[in-house]
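Q: My collaborator sent me two sequences in one message, no labels, and asked for predicted structures for both. Can we handle them in order? The first one she listed is below.
A: Yes, handling them in the order given. First sequence, followed by its C-alpha cells:
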Amino acid sequence: MTANDTSEIRVWYVAQTKPRQEHIAELNLTRQKYEVLLPLIPKLRHSKTRLIEKDEPLFPGYIFFRPEHSQHSIYPARSTVGISRLVRFGVEYARLRESMMNEIMNLVQTQLSDPVEATRRYKRLDIGATVRVTGGPMIGLEGLVSKVASDRIIVLIELLGREQKIALSPAALERA
C-alpha cells in the first residue's frame, strides 16, 4: 500500500505525556511531521474578581497522533520531548479509528459552542444520579455519577462485565 493509496486506513495512536507537557509534546510531534490532535475544551475558573475561561486538554496527560504516511514509523514518538510513553494494551499499541476521533472532536465542538451552559448542566448532576451518555463513542450507555469535578463528571459504567470509571464532559450527559 502506498502513501497515496486512497484505500489506506490511517489510525490514530495515543501517547501519555509528561505532567502538564501536552503542548510541548504537540509541538515536538508536529516538528517530526506527525499529524497531532490535542483536544482542548474551555474551562471556567474563578479568579478573585471574575470568571476566567481557559482552554485545557479534554484528556489531561494524553495526546493523539498519527504518522504522515504509511512508511512513517511511530517509534521516534516514544522518545519525543514531552512524551512519557506510547499507550499499549499488552503488546499492541492503542489505536483509534478516524470515526472515534471525529466523535471526540464533535464533543469538543459541543463544549466550544456554549461552555457556560455546559458548566451549568453538570451542576444539576448530583453524585448517585443515574445518567445517560448523549454524545461520543459511548452514546446510549447509562451509569451512576460517582464524582463531579470542575470540568468532568466521573461516571460508573458497566463495560465488559465490570464497572469502569469513565470521565465525561458534562455536555455529553443527561439524567436518565
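Q: And the one she listed second?
A: Here it is, processed independently of the first:
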Amino acid sequence: MRKIGLGILISGRGSNMDALIRACEQPDFPAFVSVVISNRPDAPGLKKAEGRGIATSVVDHEKYPDRADFEKNLQKILDAHPVDLICLAGFMRILGAAFIRPWEGRIINIHPSLLPDYKGLQTHERVIADEKKESGCTVHHVIPAMDEGSVIVQKKVPVLAGDTPAMLAARVLEKEHEAYPEAVRILAGKLKGRQKVGIA
C-alpha cells in the first residue's frame, strides 16, 4: 500500500497533530507524517512530534517582513520533505492565495463548528449564545476564502443544558480526533503520487 506524506502545520499543543500521528502509526493507515512545522518556536506540539521521531521545523512568522516572505520560507521546508497533503492542525496564521492555490485539493483544515455555520473564532461561545441544539467539527479543503472550502468530513455533538464553551469545546475536540484521520484516509485514496507545487 502506497502511503501519502503529511505535512502538519501547528501553532500550539498539537492535539489534532497527535491524533494524526497515532493514526499514522497503525500499519493499515494510508499515510505517514513527513514533517511537522510550527510558526511558533515554543509550540508544545514540536516536542511531542520530536519525541515520536518525526522531523520538525520552525518558520517563525515574527522574523519575516511580510506574509509573502513567510510563506516562501514555509514552502521551502515543505519542498525538503515528501509532502502530498498539508494538514492545518491549530495553525493560527491565515495563508494567502499565492500559497494556497498551488496546493488546492491537497491542503485541509479542521474547524470546530458545523460549517458553513460559525466560521472564524469564538465558535463555541456563539453556538451556546444562539441556543443551538447541536454543534461539531468540520474537516474541509482550504481555499483562499477563509472556512469556505468544500466539506470532507463532519462530526456532530449535542449541545447540553448548562454547557460552558469549555465543556462544549472538550466534547467537540474528541470528535475532531476522529474526524481528521477519517478525512486523511478519504483523501489518501484520491491522491496519486507527489506533484511539485509551490509559490512561483
